[in-house]
Amino acid sequence: EIVMTQSPATLSVSPGERATLSCRASQSVSSNLAWYQQKPGQAPRLLIYGASTRATGIPARFSGSGSGTEFTLTITSLHSEDFAVYYCQQYNIWPPWTFGQGTKVEIK
Amino acid sequence: QLQLQESGPGLVKPSETLSLTCTVSGGSIGSSSYYWGWIRQPPGKGLECIGNIYYSGSTYYNPSLKSRVTISVDTSKNQFSLKLSSVTAADTAVYYCARHRSSGWSPYYFDYWGQGTLVTVSS
Fold it and tell me: Disulfide engineering: A35 pairs with which of A28, A47, B9, B80, CB 3.0-4.6 Å?
């Protein structure tokens, strides 16, 4: 099973600032990585797939990069609605499809 | 717009079987580009993929749950279902159904999700 590790666990950012979230895989997942956003009481929402392709309707301030074992989700100029928990998920070697433990982006 | 809706009991007794159904609307469960999956999230914790199913009935299960899980599909009702047997308190979670975008026989990422339903295992 591929283990996905996200860092940091919590990121404190001021509105308008940039947030950089990391996701590391225990072995290479190529570019088969997705990012999700989850707000309290809601289901996760797909943000990014293929490591860097934004899903339909996702604002351009969200961008993904990386390949192999190291990935980054960047949110430029944080909006109030961006404060949430973010998860990465690999789909290179399965089953199971595995998620990271999440990074909470909170208001500083 | 595709919508998924979970339904089933919110309370299950230990050692019994958890049963949930996901009803898909706004699209056909028989589409060739998708599997249909179940994911769960214990309170305050992360996400765990339970397994998925293709409209033909082909399934993939998480090896850690495989001995207790059955996922089935009913294309005539545009529904798929989850059964998890011999539940314990550790199975208490919000259970989501989701569309699992695939390429051929390879399921990839989850692009549409249901709102989730909390299932509590308690006597």
Answer: A47
